[in-house]
TrEMBL record:
One protein family per Pfam: MarR_2
Source taxonomy: Bacteria, Pseudomonadati, Pseudomonadota, Alphaproteobacteria, Parvularculales
Designated name of the protein: MarR family winged helix-turn-helix transcriptional regulator
UniProt-listed SMART domains: HTH_MARR
Native organism: Hyphococcus aureus
Ranges where the HTH marR-type domain occurs: 30-162
InterPro entries given in the database record: HTH_MarR-typ, MarR/SlyA-like, WH-like_DNA-bd_sf, WH_DNA-bd_sf
Family matches, as SUPFAM superfamilies: Winged helix' DNA-binding domain (SSF46785)
Length: 162
């Protein structure tokens, strides 16, 4: 490599480093909490989708299966309240999961107007795989924090969503 090419490469490298430094300066938006929440959400969602690609499940579907497993016979309306989702969204998720034979609807013994939910054996198997993937995803997410920082982060996020 000639001296001129070396200098050109150094200059180009210097320009690249300068441009990278300029890209890191986002100005006043760096003080916007919502901006950082969006960036964090995007990173977490992307990793979640990569982790769950083989399961063909969304975050909401996994949450529904998990909550139904924790509370067999839970009513659809109670599920929506616990997940803080509207009933129409929960019903659409339940319809998809029922179509895949991962859960089934039943009639409430105490209130005939309510439909209850239970996992099928296939749903239980899928949930076991999903929980394994969630643990892998959580390890990735938590590795940048101490246990106390994770607890603090969860507490701070609860202030926003509760």
């Amino acid at each position: 490599m000639t001296k001129r090419n070396q200098n050109k490469k150094k200059t180009q490298s210097g320009i690249d480093q300068h441009q990278d430094a300029d890209l890191d300066d986002i100005g006043e938006i760096d003080d916007i909490v919502g901006f950082h929440i969006r960036l964090a959400y995007t990173a977490v969602y992307r990793h979640f989708m990569d982790t769950f690609a083989d399961l063909d499940m969304t975050q909401k579907q996994v949450s529904v299966l998990w909550l139904v497993d924790d509370h067999p016979g839970i009513a659809q309306t109670d599920l929506a309240k616990r997940l803080r989702m509207d009933r129409a969204t929960v019903m659409a998720i339940i319809n998809r999961l029922e179509g895949r034979r991962l859960l089934r609807r039943g009639q409430s013994a105490s209130d005939g107007r309510k439909q209850t939910l239970k996992l099928t054996p296939t749903g239980h198997k899928i949930l076991i795989d999903a929980k394994r993937a969630v643990l892998e995803h959580e390890e990735w997410l938590k590795r940048s924090f101490t246990k106390q920082e994770v607890r603090t982060l969860i507490d701070l996020l609860r202030r926003i969503h509760d």
